[in-house]
Design brief:
Layout lengths: L3 H8 L6 H6 L4 E5 L10 E5 L2 E7 L5 E5 L13 E2 L4 E2 L6 E2 L5 E3 L7 H5 L5 E2 L1 E4 L2 E4 L23 E8 L3 H8 L4 H4 L26 H4 L2 E8 L3 E9 L4 E10 L3 E3 L8 E10 L2 E9 L7 H8 L21 H6 L8 H10 L17 H18 L9 H4 L6 E5 L4 H4 L9 H8 L2
Antiparallel strand pairs: 1-11, 2-3, 3-4, 4-9, 5-6, 6-7, 7-8, 10-11, 12-18, 13-14, 14-15, 15-16, 15-19, 16-17, 17-18
The chain binds FE2/S2 (inorganic) cluster and fe (ii) ion (FE2).
């Protein structure tokens, strides 16, 4: 449960809100590389409550700029992208990717005036099929994060960005919730999985998979130098437990649970505004080509040109009551649709002052606590948590069966490179 004040602090991310300012201190995935063609159509993009437009100029440079034309305020989305700039289609003012005004056709003689016109533009970096941006103060820009999957070949990855119709925090809470997989994502029969490494079909996760068969009897949350590691221990057989982990990387990235041998998954939950989220999903295979078709189908997301879902609240996510009797727990097809349905059904911002949390909600509680602790410290001028690239580069979720008689920390330890520095130091002096 959170107070109304803390719920607001957690969920509001406009530029004048503390969490909004904190989030602007981290690198944000903005659009996929494929969405922008040189001299192609601009993409309209709302991020952290700001209306922006992304475009790729003639030379391939990417601009991420305010949607509002500085002249009289119309949308630059309708503009013309050619000749190394985006030209407003109202009076023809033209801007480069840095936001500098390069032409005012009706004021050709007045260069001095033109040079005073600046369109707000954010820096971008194109890495691993994604265009990233940093929206915070220039002098505070952190190093670019080196996530593990970035080092894998392009053919090993599938990257998707989807508009989710609720606040980022409830989307992320769902990702840290081990127990939901055993219910929301349960399919009633074991299925023939077409491709190796793929977790499920669009119906859901097999009843024999440890996420469904062995829901955690114990959960432990560990502080790490990237955020939190959430460990679940399930009762697998007489002799063995199932160990699985979720990584929460501050402030809005996650690695959901995966058993070793399965394709991995990385998420980022970027507020579009306080009532909607850009849900980023990178599916990756550690060592071989990803099965794009199987991975895409199992998630089941069909979207329109604005990346809004075809299965949505208006059509009850195409829930099929007979499928719910015979096929899976929800009667909804597509693992991602199941997640979207359940989080969007809470309303745009869930009221956390009236919820009833149990012990199984530990990871959710810890994630909120960390965000609130950091944002309150940030309000008192403490610098936000720094992510260390040496850690990010080797981090992903794993899981396996192991002997029940051993301590969980011995069979499923937190690797040394992820330990918080003070704890590492304390250990070495013992
Ligand atoms: S409003 Fe854009 S050029 Fe006039
Ligand atoms: Fe889920």
């Amino acid at each position: 449960m959170l107070s109304k004040e803390d719920n607001q602090l957690l969920t509001e991310t406009d530029a004048d809100k503390p969490m909004g300012q904190l989030f602007r201190r981290y690198w944000i995935p903005a659009v996929t590389s494929d969405e922008l063609e040189a001299d192609g159509s601009p993409v309209r993009l709302k991020l952290l409550g700001e209306n922006l437009v992304a475009f790729r100029d003639t030379e391939g440079n990417v601009g991420l700029v305010d949607e509002r034309c500085p002249h009289r305020g119309t949308s630059l989305y309708y503009g013309i992208n050619d000749g190394c700039g985006l030209r407003c289609c109202y009076h023809g003012w033209k801007f480069n990717t840095e936001g500098e005004c390069t032409e005012i056709p009706s004021e050709e003689e007045n260069e001095k005036f033109r040079k005073t016109i600046q369109l707000r533009a954010y820096p971008t970096k194109e890495v691993s099929g994604i265009i990233w941006t940093y929206m915070g103060p220039e002098e505070k820009q952190p190093p670019f994060p080196d996530f593990y999957w970035m080092g894998l070949p392009k053919k090993n990855k599938l990257i998707e960005r989807v508009w989710q119709e609720c606040n980022y925090a409830q989307v992320m809470e769902n990702d840290l919730d081990f127990v939901h997989a055993a219910f929301l994502h349960q399919s009633y029969d074991n299925q023939e999985l077409e491709a190796e490494g793929v977790l499920s079909t669009d119906l859901g996760i097999d009843p024999d998979h440890p996420l469904v068969k062995n829901p955690p009897v114990k959960q432990h949350i560990q502080d790490t130098n990237y955020g939190k590691r959430c460990v679940a221990i399930g009762d697998a057989t007489k002799d063995e437990n199932a160990f699985m982990e979720i990584h929460y990387i501050f402030p809005f990235y996650t690695y959901p649970p995966r058993f070793s041998g399965e394709d991995g998954m990385w998420h980022a939950f970027i507020p579009r505004d306080d009532h909607s989220t850009w849900s980023w999903d990178v599916q990756f295979s550690h060592s071989s080509e990803i099965d794009v078709k199987a991975q895409h189908e199992r998630r089941g997301l069909e979207v329109d040109k604005n990346l809004r879902k075809v299965q949505n609240l208006d059509n009850n996510y195409k829930q099929d009551r007979s499928l719910q009797k015979e096929g899976n727990f929800t009667g909804i097809r597509g693992i991602a649709n199941q997640d979207h349905a359940i989080t969007e059904a809470m309303g745009p911002i869930v009221d956390r002052s009236i919820e009833r949390l149990g012990t199984s909600d530990k990871p959710v509680i810890q994630m909120r606590r960390l965000l609130l602790k950091e944002v309150k410290a940030f309000q008192d001028n403490t610098e936000p948590m720094e992510l260390e690239n040496e850690s990010l580069a080797t981090l992903f979720s794993e899981g396996w069966y192991d002997n029940k008689t051993k301590h969980w920390k011995d069979v499923f330890p937190l690797k040394e490179q992820f330990q918080v520095k003070e704890e590492k130091d304390a250990q070495s002096t013992q």
